[in-house]
């Protein structure tokens, strides 16, 4: 090698600062001649920053470039016989490689133009390194350390992409230096080269040399795997499996379910190789025979699973499933049997082989249902048991739905029987999940479609209700439909009455909870008709009160007719009059004629007069008889009413009243047959009356004895107001009470009077009397038609209901759920229902101030009930499992109430979009942040809510 040329190149690479440094170094060396120094060696050249702690203060640290230049200079002046020459060449080659690597690293920080320059410099370094090593090997073929030179040479060729030369260098290490520390890696790399060139026989031999080396090495596992693939490529499938399994054993995997993601990938790769190799053997019996002679029994399932997975990816679905079925037959005691059977089920489903899929589920159920022998095995893995239980629950529901769907499509009896069987299995084995999965409703639907109405009703009721509270709207609707159908078809009187009672009960609950549901008016009206036809008049009235004024006009007409006829049948003529008044000018002739309405209205008023007369209330009786011709003059009953009024006034020596009545009669009926008799009565009245001047009296006296009804009303009202304004509370109460009793038909004034009476009794601390008047307010509101209601009367009713609701709410909160739970729970639910009903009544009038408080109250009631149920006393004597099951049942019972609470809290938030916000809405939002933090720990989006109360 021309060392002078190499030296010249090396010196030209030096920068000017480096040359300056060398000059300084030379001066230091000359100066150092005055001080004795230890003898220098070749190693003293190689002083770098990494060894500064070994350099005396007079020596400067040297860079790799400086060291490289020093070695190059040394070689240019040393003879071939110099013993340190090989060391210098080797070190110089290493420096070239290090400097080249540094140059390659700097490439990442440069632009494309500089990258090209760096690539050239890097290749130049590699070439210099190769030249140095080649020269050293040629000059000193037997020198110590040549294995390392060959190793570096192989790496340099590999960096240049000259793989053949790289492998040639590795081959020399393999053949000439079997004891080298680079031997195993070289052998492995040679084997990899053979494998990449598809020279699998040579690769197999090379991998074998690595595997059977007596030294510990990191290439054994990789060599086992790659030799296995080489053998696989050569068609030696069983030998390949040997290698793959040995690689698994050598790796010493943890339990498969505890592997990290990286380890799991390696595990799957090994068993994919095993499965693929076995798949080429074809016969599963060969797999079994092979595995019988192996010790790695813990991996048998994974072998069969891998074979199955291979078949599945090849779209050989039957082979995939059969492989796992074969495993279950050959290894019936394996803990992996349940997992294998579940996988078979999934294969059939994904393959679209649904007949086999459903058959596999049926077999799985037979083997592992909760009543099977499997669950008596005390050694069964708990995790596996939980997985089986979960899968079985899902499969049971799936089978029920499948056969249900088949029955709906084909109407075949076997499909019905199978669907029924699977629903019953679910209810038997997983009752705690039945409400969540809506099983009772689905089962009821099946039975109803089959015509088994009574049985269907039972399951609809379970799904719909809990102690008179609706939990599921669809199920509740179905109970109403089914009971109506049963009532129509039933011939036995007792049973017919039972179906009607249940139908009315369910229709009432539905109408109360869902007043704005579009189906509610029709449901309630139909139930009211059935109740009326069955002479259940009070029930018919109660039902008609649930129909909103927003319903279809024809439904409203029908409801009013049912209500009016029911009041008449119950002899509640005041209420009947109100109904017929509203119908008088709007009745639909398809239902009843105007003439019939007029006569019914007249008759209701006439009967009020009769009742007052029989009670001795003559003035009231006369007023009623007189009202008939004023309201319905065309009625045939009107003249008889006037005649009754005249007769009463004369018999009771009410001469002024008699005179007025007689004149009115003559004016209305000048040609009536009774006119002559009326003239006689008028003469008598004038004689007896004296016709002197009528004395003016105090307001209260006028209210009791005056002739003009409006004046009497105004006088009595004025008297009561005066008493109240002067704080004569008891006198005010007496006056208002008289007004309330005397003029119940003056609805607005009547409501105002009762509202003031409640306030007055509150002021003298007589809450029972105050609440009595509030109850009368609610009754009066219930019995009046919506057209007569005003904003003021709605406020009065809503406020009164709210006070009563809060009273009941306070009592409700005090009730605790104590053992025995059934008794205390019944009391708690009854109080809940009463409070909800009152709050609901307070909220239906659109009065914002009371609606938000009432809505919040309803939500709080449900929320308190849910929490009270969850924190109720637990029965004594339960073990941990029983207590856990008990608490699961409590949570299942409490969950719907919490859902209802959230529903009504959200209703309250919905009023924000109407521009209304108060403390009750704020409280509802606060509760939602607690109950539903994921949704409400931020600004509520109230524009999505629906006000279900209005």
Provide a descriptive summary of the structure in words.
This protein has 950 residues and is mainly alpha-helical. Among the domains are: 120 residues, Serine Threonine Protein Phosphatase 5, Tetratricopeptide repeat, CATH 1.25.40; 111 residues, Alpha Horseshoe (Serine Threonine Protein Phosphatase 5, Tetratricopeptide repeat), CATH 1.25.40; 95 residues; 129 residues. The chain is built from 43 helices and 2 strands. It has a two-stranded antiparallel ribbon with strand order 1-2. A hairpin with a 2-residue loop joins strand 1 and strand 2. The longest helix is centred in the C-terminal third of the chain and has 30 residues. The C terminus is likely disordered.
């Amino acid at each position: 090698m021309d060392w002078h040329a190499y030296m010249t190149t090396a010196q030209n690479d030096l920068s000017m600062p480096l040359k300056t440094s060398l000059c300084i170094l030379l001066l230091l060396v000359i100066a150092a001649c005055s001080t004795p120094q230890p003898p220098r060696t070749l190693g003293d050249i190689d002083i770098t920053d990494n060894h500064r702690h070994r350099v005396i203060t007079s020596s400067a640290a040297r860079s790799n470039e400086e060291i490289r230049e020093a070695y190059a200079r040394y070689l240019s002046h040393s003879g071939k016989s110099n013993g340190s020459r090989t060391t210098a060449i080797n070190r110089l080659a290493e420096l070239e490689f290090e400097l080249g690597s540094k140059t390659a690293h700097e490439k990442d920080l440069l632009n494309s133009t500089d990258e090209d320059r760096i690539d050239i410099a890097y290749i130049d370094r590699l070439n210099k390194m190769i030249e140095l090593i080649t020269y050293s090997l040629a000059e000193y073929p037997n020198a110590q350390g040549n294995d390392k030179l060959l190793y570096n040479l192989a790496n340099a060729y590999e960096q240049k992409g000259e793989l053949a030369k790289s492998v040639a260098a590795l081959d020399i290490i393999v053949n000439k230096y079997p004891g080298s520390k680079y031997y195993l890696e070289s052998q492995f790399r040679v084997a990899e080269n053979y494998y990449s060139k598809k020279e699998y026989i040579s690769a197999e031999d090379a991998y074998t040399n690595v595997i059977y080396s007596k030294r510990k090495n990191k290439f054994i596992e990789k060599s086992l795997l790659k030799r296995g693939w080489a053998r696989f490529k050569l068609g030696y499938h069983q030998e390949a499996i040997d290698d793959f399994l040995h690689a698994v054993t050598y790796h010493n995997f943890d339990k498969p379910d505890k592997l990290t993601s990286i380890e799991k990938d390696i595990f799957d790769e090994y068993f994919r190789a095993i499965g693929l190799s076995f798949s080429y053997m074809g016969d599963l019996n060969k797999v079994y025979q092979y595995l019988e002679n192996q010790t790695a029994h813990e991996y048998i399932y994974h072998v069969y699973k891998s074979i199955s997975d291979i078949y599945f990816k090849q779209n050989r679905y039957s082979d995939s499933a059969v492989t796992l079925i074969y495993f279950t037959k050959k290894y019936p005691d394996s803990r992996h049997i349940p997992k294998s059977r579940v996988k078979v089920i999934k294969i059939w489903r994904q393959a679209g082989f649904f007949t086999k899929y459903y058959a596999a589920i049926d077999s799985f159920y037979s083997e592992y249902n909760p009543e099977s022998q499997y669950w008596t095995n005390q050694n069964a893995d708990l995790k596996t048991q939980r997985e089986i239980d979960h899968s079985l629950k899902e499969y049971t529901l799936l089978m029920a739905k499948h056969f249900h769907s088949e029955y709906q499509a084909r109407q075949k009896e076997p499909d019905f029987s199978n669907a029924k069987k699977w629903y019953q299995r679910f209810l038997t084995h997983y009752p705690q999940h039945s409400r969540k999965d809506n099983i009772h409703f689905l089962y009821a639907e099946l039975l109803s479609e089959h015509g088994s109405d009574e049985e269907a009703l039972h399951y609809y009721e379970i799904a719909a209700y809990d102690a008179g509270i609706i939990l599921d709207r669809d199920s509740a609707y179905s109970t109403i439909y089914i009971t109506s159908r049963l009532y129509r078809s039933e011939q036995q009187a007792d049973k017919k009455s039972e179906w009607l009672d249940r139908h009315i009960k369910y229709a009432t609950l539905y109408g109360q909870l869902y007043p704005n549901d579009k189906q509610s008016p029709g449901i309630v009206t139909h139930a009211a008709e059935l109740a009326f036809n069955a002479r259940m008049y009070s029930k018919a009235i109660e039902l008609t009160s649930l129909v909103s004024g927003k319903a279809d006009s024809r439904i409203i007409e029908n409801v009013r007719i049912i209500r009016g006829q029911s009041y008449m049948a119950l002899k509640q003529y005041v209420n009947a009059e109100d109904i017929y008044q509203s119908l008088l000018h709007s009745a639909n002739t398809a239902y009843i004629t105007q003439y019939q309405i007029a006569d019914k209205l007249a008759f209701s008023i006439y009967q009020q007069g009769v009742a007052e007369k029989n009670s001795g209330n003559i003035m009231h009786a006369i007023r009623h008889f007189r009202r008939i011709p004023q309201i319905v003059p065309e009625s045939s009953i009107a003249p008889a009413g006037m005649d009754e009024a005249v007769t009463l006034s004369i018999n009771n020596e009410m001469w002024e009243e008699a005179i007025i009545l007689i004149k009115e009669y003559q004016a209305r009926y000048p040609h009536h047959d009774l006119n002559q008799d009326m003239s006689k009565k008028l003469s008598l009245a004038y004689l007896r009356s004296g016709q002197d001047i009528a004395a003016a009296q105090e307001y209260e006296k006028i209210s009791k004895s005056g002739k003009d009804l409006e004046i009497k009303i105004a006088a009595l009202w004025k008297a009561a107001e005066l008493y109240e304004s002067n704080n004569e509370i008891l006198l005010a109460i007496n006056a208002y009470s008289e007004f309330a009793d005397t003029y119940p038909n003056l609805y607005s004034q009547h409501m105002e009077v009762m509202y003031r009476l409640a306030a007055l009794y509150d002021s003298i601390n007589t809450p029972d009397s105050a609440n009595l008047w509030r109850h009368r307010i609610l009754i009066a509101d219930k019995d009046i038609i919506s057209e007569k209601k005003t904003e003021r009367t709605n406020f009065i009713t809503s406020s009164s209901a709210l006070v009563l609701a809060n009273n009941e709410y306070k009592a409700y909160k005090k009730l605790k759920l104590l053992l025995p739970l059934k008794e205390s729970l019944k009391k708690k639910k009854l109080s809940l229902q009463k409070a909800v009903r009152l709050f609901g009544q307070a909220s239906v009038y659109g009065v914002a101030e009371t609606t938000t408080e009432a809505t919040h109250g309803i939500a709080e009631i449900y929320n308190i009930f849910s929490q009270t149920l969850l924190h109720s006393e637990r029965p004594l004597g339960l073990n941990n499992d029983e207590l856990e099951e008990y608490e699961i049942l409590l949570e299942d019972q409490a969950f719907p109430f919490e859902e209802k609470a959230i529903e009504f809290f959200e209703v309250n938030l919905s009023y924000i979009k109407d521009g209304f916000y108060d403390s009750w809405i704020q409280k509802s939002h606060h509760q939602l942040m607690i109950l539903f933090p994921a949704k409400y720990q931020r600004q509520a989006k109230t524009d999505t809510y629906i006000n279900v109360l209005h």
